[in-house]
Design a protein that fits this description.
Layout lengths: L2 H8 L4 E2 L1 E7 L2 E7 L2 E5 L4 E7 L4 H8 L1 E6 L5 H7 L12 E3 L2 E3 L5 E13 L2 E13 L6 E4 L2 E4 L8
Antiparallel strand pairs: 1-11, 2-3, 2-6, 4-5, 5-10, 6-9, 7-8, 9-10, 11-12
Amino acid sequence: MDDRQFRNAMGKFATGVTVIVTEVEGEPHGMTANAFMSVSLSPKLVVVSIGENAKILNKIKESQKFTVNILASDQQTVSMIFAGQLKEHDGVAFDRLGGQPVVPGAIVQVSCEVSAEHVEGDHTFFIGKVTDLQLNEDSEPLIFYCGRYRFLSEETPIA
């Protein structure tokens, strides 16, 4: 199989869209990612996967902290900014959670301290111990599927 076939196959898994943020010397650094999952309830752990060429990789290694911001359906522009798809924009003003920068309006903001890191292939997995979180119950998530942004539709009742 070639790389494109593998990428297309993995794109068939619908995911939420997150922005991972860390801060070094008072300067926030972020990137859009969909490689995120919860790992454990006790202790509360999450994992993010960061590519070896991502600028944020060494920033997280240095800070040993990061936030995960699960984007709301109206935050496609925010995703595009942190994915480097929008070069001209007004920037993003951050809120704070547990002393760390978070994306305003995200449906979930999770503040973490790195508890472990593991290199596998061309990515580093950061396991984060959750130190704080904020949940917005009133918004729907932004979805990514087959290389495109999507939105949830009305629920279909189970018969």
